[in-house]
Design a protein that fits this description.
Blueprint (H helix, E strand, L loop, with lengths): L1 H22 L2 H13 L6 H26 L5 H44 L4 H11 L3 H14 L4 H12 L2 H16 L3 H57 L10 H25 L2 H30 L2
Helix pairs in contact: 1-3, 3-4, 4-5, 4-9, 4-11, 5-6, 6-7, 7-8, 8-9, 9-10, 9-11, 10-11
Length: about 325
């Protein structure tokens, strides 16, 4: 049975790969595949797209059955169907951002040790090679990749320029651009790297202190966005239902649920971007926060209504 299932999946992935390669440009597939490899996920991008599509089709079937049998909200069908794609994309974006953060964290100590090896007389290539044998982490993986490319015929400048492009980190770009330029001009690279490492450490310390100082403000914003505001609007909705039940109708009552949802979503978006700017100064992280804050606030909004209606037996 399992062998038949595996064989059937292989047939699906093979046919799917042909379709994906036909409709998605090769450069985009290569870029996505490279991102997966950088994160340590050694799965073909076409297989990942295929498995995600299979999950989406299964969810489409289930939600369609629920829509027919118990009359669920029709909007839930496309939302739930697209959920696997959203989850996979958000997870990859989150891991890529986490990778960049880890690289920035590893960078000062890494170049400090590199400076020490250069100080004892090793050439830059030999120093990087020795250091790569004793270190681990995302930054070291990228340096190992550059060293392998050099062993296959690429020049030092080309290999580490590619590293700069892969890492997408301003700190890495500045450090390795300085290494490339200093190697060409013959300057004292050891002293330069030591000074850069100390500056990066000081900058990281200041960033941590800044985050610690504003953490209470961040907590207040999150409580307001995820708990207080959704609960307040949930209570207002229950009150309008109560007024309708006792016959006190108003033309505005019909618009309150839609207005409540709109306000909660807009408020969550604004809070997400404010927190991203205060805490990280990074718009990418603001977007990631938005996809956490909005579902959380909507969850509290709906759950609070269910709880209050159960308590009051409305």
């Amino acid at each position: 049975m399992y062998n038949n299932l595996i064989e059937y999946l292989n047939i699906i992935t093979t046919k799917s790969e042909i379709i994906i390669n036909k409709h998605i440009p090769e450069e985009y597939l290569d870029k996505m595949q490279d991102n997966l490899i950088q994160l340590g996920y050694y799965i073909k991008i076409t297989d990942l797209i295929t498995y995600t599509t299979i999950m989406a089709l299964i969810l489409l079937f289930i939600t369609t059955i629920l829509f027919i049998t118990i009359n669920v909200n029709p909007l839930s069908v496309p939302i739930i169907t697209l959920a696997p794609y959203v989850v996979v994309i958000l997870y990859i974006v989150y891991k890529m951002q986490k990778r960049e953060d880890n690289i920035n964290e590893e960078l000062p100590e890494y170049i400090l040790q590199l400076s020490a090896l250069l100080n004892v007389g090793l050439a830059i290539e030999s120093a990087l090679n020795e250091l790569s044998k004793t270190q681990d982490g995302y930054l070291n993986n990228e340096i190992k990749r550059s060293l392998i490319e050099m062993s296959l015929g690429k020049s030092f400048d080309e290999s580490f320029t590619d590293l700069i492009n892969r890492c997408q980190s301003n700190n890495v770009k500045q450090v390795f651009q300085i290494i490339i330029n200093t190697k060409q001009t013959g300057g004292n690279l050891s002293e330069i790297l030591e000074e850069i490492a100390m500056d990066l450490k000081d900058m990281q310390m200041l960033q941590k202190e800044s985050r610690a100082n504003i953490i209470m403000s961040i907590m207040f914003l999150l409580i307001a966005a995820i708990i207080a505001t959704p609960f307040a609007f949930g209570t207002i909705n229950i009150y309008t239902i109560f007024l309708s039940n006792v016959g006190r109708t108003n033309s505005l009552i019909d618009y309150i649920p839609m207005a409540s949802l709109g306000y909660i979503i807009i408020h969550s978006i604004m809070v997400s971007f404010l927190i991203g700017d205060l805490l990280y100064s990074n718009s990418k992280k603001s977007v990631l926060l938005m996809f956490i804050v909005i579902p959380s606030s909507l969850g509290v909004y709906y759950i609070s209504q269910i709880v209050i209606r159960t308590i009051l037996a409305i």
